[in-house]
Specification:
The protein is of the alpha/beta class and about 300 residues long.
């Protein structure tokens, strides 16, 4: 889908992206992770030509991105940023409809697409369609920004720290929404963040940058279980890797089928990290487990959490 081959970018003679090669597959949720100044946002902006790379090649759908007109490639790549960037004097509906109107979609199709996306992002279409950005909360504005980025049915959704300015509760809610949208639509998503927990919870693939170079890339489990070097270990937190590993696995992976336990059951989809909290709060050593339809599956024991193997 997107491939970078030996890409370099410098500002005032200082390298920001240094001989970077990367392949992002169709349908993948790739999170670009790194500390401030590592080159994350620069890398993202080069993918849709908001910034031009100095050397190397960037391919989109097999073609060099410089073979596309900038506006053409941006219509095929949705872009959502932390500051949202909604047009203040346009209604929610008009903001979301920006790209479809540029693409000259029929009015009926535009209206239907706006309604579809507002429903997908859990914004009541009839209630919010005619409102203006200043009449929305920060979380609602961010939802509108994501809807606008998705409106033209882009092949790729680029997101640059989209939830960074939100409070923790709203941020967590929107992270769940983006994960749900990725699962429902299969859109290729590339998200930039410095938030480790956000990366681990959302990504199918993580790319860790340092000084414009890839230190390591892989699944969240690979990054935690097999760090390439001390930098990776320290970045993810040398002393709490075990807790993070528990967050990547579900109760279903440690299920003891056919066993029984009293008390309120937990769902098999619950993370082992949350299960540990349940054990500590309830002061028990065994929990009953049910599926999404509340059918009994078995149990999980506290001792099962000590096995951190994938």
């Amino acid at each position: 889908m997107i491939e970078l081959q030996h890409v370099c970018k410098a500002f005032n003679g200082l390298p920001v992206i240094d001989d970077l090669s990367l392949h992002i597959a169709r349908g993948e949720f790739t999170v670009i992770l790194g500390s401030s100044g590592s080159g994350k946002s620069t890398l993202l902006k080069m993918m849709n030509r908001l910034l031009e790379h100095d050397s190397g090649r960037i391919l989109f759908a097999g073609e060099e991105i410089r073979s596309f007109r900038p506006e053409a490639i941006r219509r095929r790549m949705g872009y959502a940023i932390q500051s949202v960037g909604l047009f203040p004097h346009w209604s929610v509906e008009k903001n979301i409809a920006t790209v479809p109107r540029l693409l000259k979609w029929p009015a009926e199709r535009v209206h239907a697409r706006v309604t579809e996306l507002m429903t997908l992002l859990q914004l009541d279409a009839e209630r919010y369609r005619k409102r203006y950005p200043h009449q929305l909360s920060g979380g609602q504005q961010q939802r509108v920004g994501v809807a606008r980025a998705l409106a033209g049915k882009p092949e790729v959704l680029l997101m640059d720290e989209p939830f960074g300015a939100l409070d923790p509760v709203t941020r967590a809610t929107l992270q769940l929404e983006i994960a749900r949208i990725h699962k429902a639509l299969g859109t290729t998503i590339v998200l930039v963040t410095h938030d480790i927990d956000e990366a681990l919870s959302l990504a199918t693939s993580i790319v860790l940058l340092d000084h414009g170079r890839i230190v390591q890339s892989g699944t969240p489990l690979q990054m935690l279980s097999n760090p390439a070097n001390d930098f990776v270990t320290d970045f993810f937190g040398r002393n709490d890797v075990g807790i993070k590993l528990l967050g990547l696995q579900s109760v279903a992976t440690r299920l003891r089928s056919g066993e029984h336990a009293g008390g309120e059951p937990v769902h098999a989809s619950l993370s082992l990290r949350d299960a540990m909290s349940m054990f500590l709060v309830r002061r028990v050593d065994r929990l009953a487990v049910v599926d999404g339809e509340c059918r009994a599956l078995g149990t999980i024991n506290f001792s099962d959490l000590l096995d951190l193997r994938p």
